[in-house]
Amino acid sequence: MVTITDISRACGVSRATVSKALNGAPDIAAETAERIRECARSLGYLPNATARALKVGRSNNIGVLFSDSTGGGISHEYFSKILESVKAEAEKLGYDITFISKDLGDMKMDFYEHAKYRNCDGVVVASADFHDPAIIRLCTSDIPTVTLDYVYDSRTAILSDNVRGMEELVTYVHSMGHRRIAFIYGELTSVTQKRLASFKKTCASLGISVLPEYMRQGVYHDPRSSGLATRALLSLPERPTCILYPDDFSFIGGMNELEKQGVSIPKDMSVAGYDGIPLSQVLRPRLTTYRQGAERMGAEAARLLVEQIEHPDTWLPQQVTVEGELLTGDTVSRPD
Amino acid sequence: MVTITDISRACGVSRATVSKALNGAPDIAAETAERIRECARSLGYLPNATARALKVGRSNNIGVLFSDSTGGGISHEYFSKILESVKAEAEKLGYDITFISKDLGDMKMDFYEHAKYRNCDGVVVASADFHDPAIIRLCTSDIPTVTLDYVYDSRTAILSDNVRGMEELVTYVHSMGHRRIAFIYGELTSVTQKRLASFKKTCASLGISVLPEYMRQGVYHDPRSSGLATRALLSLPERPTCILYPDDFSFIGGMNELEKQGVSIPKDMSVAGYDGIPLSQVLRPRLTTYRQGAERMGAEAARLLVEQIEHPDTWLPQQVTVEGELLTGDTVSRPD
DNA sequence: ATAATTAACTTAATCGATTAAGTAAGGCCC
DNA sequence: GGGCCTTACTTAATCGATTAAGTTAATTAT
């Protein structure tokens, strides 16, 4: 391994000079700096991130926390998109990404300890149980954090615009003539509560009265649950004309149930999903859904985290809401 | 931050003693060790992974490389499953995971340099262009590596059993009475070549003669391409009775095309996918497919990499083939 | 009783890089 | 010509932990 010492010997200067030259310090003569850089290049020198991190107390490494318990892990399309964009943006900014988990090997550690142990400069927290004390500890600690889809007091967060998403969806199906709109929603997280509230509010402001039977709790990302909910909705004396699913993947369960009962989409029943995963735009009929701005959310999360890391003193916590986009597919038609 | 020095002061022993006590060295009295551990606990001591890594030259950190160019990035179901299991297994073994990319920030680095820079003890390489010189450099370097679905000479690799997968699929559809079997395959990677060879060989050994028109090149993970290929197959004077798709997601494109042409699955046309992603088992009819053992592959990759890292001298490169499992869904029926 | 061994520490060097503080040489000014 | 800046370096401490080698004191062997 080529170190700064090797270069200093090869160039006949002190190690300090080499370090400064490579970092562009102002008190090194231009030609000396060039000579040193050339020498470093020819020797194949690579800075040692570990040594640098130890000295300067910054690792240029940010943690990413996807707690798996909720099932909303890495293989969830929405979160994997976020992860991908966090990664891309972080790399652009010169930061690497390390996963934060509890219980590394035989060491009993919580998330905060893990992040500290790895010297993470900050952590992006997504898809977590935000009521988990270990998550709370991390997100209220001295480590800069950015949460996704959840706000801790005086902390930076990136939020998907669930209120607007629901509003656009409901407004759209209303504009298509639907008045009997059912909504299958997921577990009661803060996201779900926003969607529910927005659903109710939008319905109210459009003058739609929603039967309580039209609002059914389901489970995110679970076609079985949405299939059951769909069956229940179909057996109502007064069937809805449109069903909103908790997410695109859940819709598949509904689709199956509808098909089984000979209910054709969108002729006999209009439907819409949520998320805008690739699958939704590849299915025929194309699913009407609200695409969350996962890429932008991930990029913003990384960007704000890095800003917070690099300017801790002037940092003002902020909540950024990223709007999505209504994808009007072909699964919502005008009811008879 | 609590360091070893703080503990040594609090306990009235040297820093060396503290370090040894915490690492269970044999030359520390049991009661002293206990006192030190207790003290460390009460002070909330956390070892500093960076400092340790600098000293011992090992980071307990493994790199994961998913090059994005091929589009087989993190959000690909198969690869995200692999990533998830690599992560889980690595964590069990006490290793963290860092993504390896090229061009971190403004530093021009290739994969090898990045891994070195971050002091990775080893790298898992997946979903990459294995002909990329940068990948080759990494995978033939002094850094321990494990590749997935590709073998470099005298290097450890984890392979999905593509030969067996194809064989099982073909044998199965043959046993269901199909003789006119079409195969849409993806880009000609080594994986594709294995599948193609196995397809031909199995057909031959079963006495099926495959029309050249029945083998069509498509693109992995691309429903549009598979839709076009499907259309072409349907317009043949002698239609196949069964179509094998390059993967489950591609199948969606075929499904759309079949539906459009009023060809019912599986009554008029049998189909099968490959991968066994969750979606395939949630669709109705359930897709017949071959589930690759992504979880086992990821876990094996991590396990072998760590073994290689921890016993470099006695390490013998090996290629492990992980078998998958035929999922007989409901999309293959007996042809008339 | 003395030498040899063992147990339980401590000392000090080290990993590779950064950086505050120090220094020497040259230039500038009055 | 003496003092004062600059410029361009060097010296040396430091980050936190590990570990080979050294040092005691106590124990065992002869």
Shape of chain A: elongated
Multimeric state of these chains?
homodimer
Between the first and last Cα atoms of chain A, what is the distance in angstroms?
75 Å
**Biggest interface pair, counts:** A-B, 55 and 54 residues
Overall number of strands of chain A: 12
Number of helical regions of chain A: 12
Spans of chain A of at least 5 consecutive residues whose pLDDT stays below 50 are: none
- How many domain modules of chain A? 3
What's the quick description here?
The structure is a homodimer of 336-residue chains. Chain A is of the alpha/beta class and 336 residues long. The first copy, chain A, is built from twelve helices and twelve strands.
Jot down its keywords.
homodimer; 336 residues; alpha/beta; 434 Repressor (Amino-terminal Domain); Rossmann fold; 3 domains; six-stranded parallel β-sheet; 12 strands; 42% helix; 14% strand; elongated; DNA-binding
Tell me about this structure.
Two copies of one chain form a homodimer. Chain A is α/β, with parallel strands linked by helices. Chain A has three domains: 4-47, lambda repressor-like DNA-binding domains (434 Repressor (Amino-terminal Domain)); 61-160 and 295-324, Response regulator (Rossmann fold, 3-Layer(aba) Sandwich), CATH 3.40.50; 162-292, Response regulator (Rossmann fold, 3-Layer(aba) Sandwich), CATH 3.40.50. The first copy, chain A, is built from twelve helices and twelve strands. Chain A has a six-stranded parallel sheet with strand order 2-1-3-4-5-11, with helices on both faces. In chain A, strand 3, helix 7 (133-139) and strand 4 (145-148) form a beta-alpha-beta unit. The longest helix of chain A has 17 residues, at 294-310. The mean pLDDT of chain A is 95. At the A-B interface, helix 4, helix 5, strand 2, helix 6 and helix 11 of A face helix 4, helix 5, strand 2, helix 6 and helix 11 of B. Chain A binds a DNA duplex (30 and 30 nucleotides) through residues 1, 3-5, 13-20, 23, 25, 27-29, 32, 47-48, 50-57.
